[in-house]
Design brief:
143 residues; Jelly Rolls; 6-stranded antiparallel β-sheet; 11 strands; 0% helix; 52% strand
Length: 143
């Protein structure tokens, strides 16, 4: 038994990970509108596009995604995660009319992707009434 000395330099070049937040409030979005998380905190691998709101897989693999939305009292903001136009999962956030409390909801999805497949968050139905900037986020990474 022994050990092997490893060089850790350059290990980040194989990492694919991103973390984003809304850069501005989202209000009264229509049906199936892409939610663009424009404040990019981390984008190792440059696979998330802050202009389109879409993540494009740079290579085949299994990817993990999580998104959180925060809405105001009396408002709602319901979303779905989409792979190449196909719905994978949902997130329901309802600020309950008459409530004085904010409401948030988080969802996650593990998705098998091929190189150049795209994943994004969009409004579910016509339910993009109000989401706070900075408190709403979208993240992902390759397992």
């Amino acid at each position: 038994m022994g050990y092997k000395t490893m060089n850790c330099s350059g290990t980040e070049k194989n990492i694919i990970a991103f973390h984003t937040r809304l850069s501005k409030r989202q209000e009264n979005l229509g049906k199936s509108v892409v939610v663009v998380f424009g404040k990019i905190i981390l984008n190792t691998g440059n696979a998330y596009d802050g202009m389109t709101g879409k993540f494009t897989a740079p290579e085949d693999g299994i990817y993990s995604f999580t998104w959180t939305m925060l809405t105001a009292p009396g408002k709602y903001f319901n979303t779905e995660i989409v792979l190449n136009g196909n719905i994978i999962g949902y997130n329901f956030v309802d600020g309950a009319t008459g409530s004085s409390h904010h409401s948030s909801g988080s969802s996650s999805a593990i998705i098998k992707m091929k190189k150049k497949d795209e994943v994004w968050i969009r409004t579910y139905g016509d339910n993009g009434k109000f989401a706070y900037e900075n408190w709403s986020s979208f993240s992902g990474f390759k397992l």
